[in-house]
Design brief:
about 325 residues; alpha/beta; Rossmann fold; eight-stranded mixed beta sheet; about 20% strand
């Protein structure tokens, strides 16, 4: 007797972004307004979605409706809570999240840090609004759903322009082109080609951050304030003094080259540490990671850019 296929549910959570944006003209790819269409509208207009689902069911939920340049901690927490809710359902196979491109890499890393990795959470996006003559959002959505349904998928991934990126490595590297994301030296986790997934290697399971429960439950207004600074020619220590005086709890410094730091900043940061501010160092270089310990500052987890290191430090300080 042939056993009936067990039907799964796949969840699409909307947060806005260019993928849900509209413009007055189909030829306008930059003068649009983000986050105008609901995720239910996007899915209803998606061709071939039933073919991708293969008899499974789709659930759609609007978590937020914003331009991702305005992403905030309260939206992060709400999104993580809804992901946690759906991932806990035995009949849910995975989640797709529609997101703006500007802060997608930060949201991906936050979710990777606070969610279990057994089931996939796949972020996708668009570089052109939904009203464009040739929008890229529909294909990215279909690809993301295809990746989420693949048995090898796990953890937080990002899918854009046919490439699959891990949350740790993904970074927006171009302001306009459709293929705007890169995983740097790590390379893509895989590709979506004609509806088929080709992996470059196994998805690595990771444990959530030790303070993930606090991030999911603590009021975002009470999350520790962590900011990002850059070392550069003519760097002025007054910015460090101002942040410390204002009550900052942590600072991530993007140093030059192999983590080198302007002397005026290094002195001010050492003073900040003496006042209880936690400081972490990364490189501002787009590729590579700091080798050795070039300065009197503790390194952030290797390979993270400054903005992901900020997320990790913020979680570290939630104890």
């Amino acid at each position: 007797m042939v056993q009936a296929k067990k039907i799964k549910n796949w969840v699409v959570l909307g947060t806005g972004g260019t993928i849900a944006g509209t413009a007055a003209s189909a030829s306008d790819h930059t003068g649009y307004t983000a986050a105008q269409l609901g995720v239910a509208q996007l899915m209803a207009a998606l061709p071939d979605v039933d073919q991708v689902l293969g008899g499974d069911r789709l659930q759609v939920e609007q978590v937020a409706q914003l331009d991702s340049k305005d992403m905030g901690h309260a939206t992060w927490q709400a999104l993580a809570q809804r992901c946690q809710h759906w991932l806990a359902q035995p009949d849910v196979g995975g989640i797709v999240v529609t997101h703006g491109t500007d802060t997608l890499e930060e949201t991906a890393w936050f979710l990777q840090q606070v969610l279990p990795s057994a089931k996939p959470v796949v972020l996708t996006c668009a570089m052109r609004p939904a009203t464009a003559l040739a929008p890229d959002g529909p294909q990215n959505l279909l690809d993301a759903l295809t990746v989420a349904r693949h048995p090898q998928a796990q953890g937080v991934l990002a899918v854009c322009a046919g490439r699959i990126h891990c949350a740790r490595d993904v970074q927006k590297v171009h302001p306009y082109r459709l293929d705007a994301f890169s995983s740097g030296e790590a390379g893509p986790q895989g590709w979506v080609e004609q509806g088929q997934v080709r992996w470059s290697g196994p998805c690595q399971a990771t444990e959530p951050h030790a303070h993930a429960p606090q991030a999911l439950a603590q009021a975002p207004a009470d999350w520790p304030w962590v900011d990002v600074l850059h070392s550069h020619a003519g760097a002025d220590a007054r910015q460090v003094h101002a942040l410390v005086a204002a009550g900052v709890k942590g600072l991530v410094l993007a140093g030059t080259g192999n983590g080198t730091v302007h002397q005026s900043l290094l002195t001010a940061l050492n003073e900040a540490q003496a006042h209880g501010v936690v400081v972490r160092l990364v490189t501002r270089c787009a590729e590579g990671q700091i080798v050795g310990q070039p300065a009197a500052l503790q390194l952030a987890p290797l390979g993270l850019n400054a903005f992901k290191a900020r997320v990790s430090l913020m979680l570290d300080l939630m104890a």
